[in-house]
Write a sequence for this structure.
């Protein structure tokens, strides 16, 4: 897949942390920013998936044990990915 060049503005402390991490990982800053962007996009997909799952069960009352259990289980699956 071809790469696209872009210019972004970020706060200096964030830039410094990214620069240090890139050096530690022995990868380019560009690669590190690309990895970070990919991870952010995946997290956003996970949040959208959770919203879709919750919407699918909205017509069922929370008092049904299976619905309450599924919602808490879905949350536990994705909570660490936010």
């Amino acid at each position: 897949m071809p790469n696209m060049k872009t210019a972004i503005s970020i706060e200096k402390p964030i830039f410094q942390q990214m620069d240090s991490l890139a050096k530690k990982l022995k990868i380019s800053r560009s690669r590190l920013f690309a990895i970070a962007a990919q991870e952010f996009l995946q997290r956003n997909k996970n949040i959208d998936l959770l919203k879709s799952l919750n919407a699918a069960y909205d017509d069922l009352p929370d008092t049904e044990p299976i619905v309450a259990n599924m919602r808490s289980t879905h949350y536990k699956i994705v909570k660490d990915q936010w």
Remarks:
- The chain is about 70% helix and 0% strand.
- The chain has one domain: 12-79.
